Amino acid sequence: MSQVAQLRRATGFAAGLYRERYDRWYAGRFRGDDVARLRLREGRRDPYAIYEEMRAKGPMLPTRLGDWATTSHPLASQVLRSRRFGVRELAEVPDGGLVHGGVHEEVDLSFLGLNPPDHTRLRRLAAPAFSPRMMAVYSAQVERIVGRLLEAAERRGDFDLIADFAAPLPIAVITGMLGVPADDIGAFQRYGTTLGSALDGLRSLRHAREVLRANAELEAIFESLFALREREPGDDLISALVVERGERIQPHELVPLCSLLLVAGFETTVNLIGNAVLALLAHPDQWQALRDDPGLASSAVEEVLRWDPPVRETGRVAFDDIDIGGVRVRANQWVVLVLAATGRDPEVFPDPGRFDIARTPGAEHLAFSSGIHYCIGAPLARLEATAALTAIARRLPRLRQRGPLVLRSSTTIRGPLHLPVTVR
Question: pTM, whole model, 2 decimals?
Answer without folding.
Answer: 0.86
